[in-house]
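Hi R.,

Here's the chain you asked about this morning:
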Amino acid sequence: MNVVCLDLEGVLVPEIWIAFSEKTGIPELRRTTRDEPDYDKLMSYRLAILREHGLGLREIQETIAGIEPLDGAKEFLDALRERTQVIILSDTFTQFASPLMRKLGWPTIFCNSLTAAPSGEIIGYRMRCSQSKLSTVRALQSVGFDTIAAGDSYNDLAMIRASRAGFLFRSTEKIIADNPDLPAYTEFDQLLRGILDAIGE
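And here is the predicted structure, written out as tokens:
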């Protein structure tokens, strides 16, 4: 049996932190997992900037409410879910993801959670498990699934390489150049064809 594991931000929806950076005019918040492989370091950096500017969960959720899926993302996801099981594996947080899942037709997502003070200040975060994407892929494989994975960032590479087939999608030139053996696509129809070929359809 096959299950497709997809990253969320940069693959199906725009990068939340980049959208928030643009709304707030704080360029430092544009930094994502495409730029920083160490997720704990990245989140500590982000939370420090939020504290410095007095921003919290409410302001980020207001930005997320205006984010729409990437053009063609829902149609791609619908077509894929007609043919195989799909799980979104993301390092985002449940407090960010729910409005986006509604717009994508409520696909299954495994992600993390934030801790917020009554004031709305984000005071911490809890990862679902260590190396959550890779750990999830290995767990799925341990119960009989063949995994096919796609993502765009450094934190997707482990799950992509651990899977029977894996793809980069709309990734950076550096990540593509550093991983020349991985198929790299920019259009949803290319990614859909690649995945369907991998599962034998």
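One quick note: The chain has a mean pLDDT of 94.

Cheers,
M.
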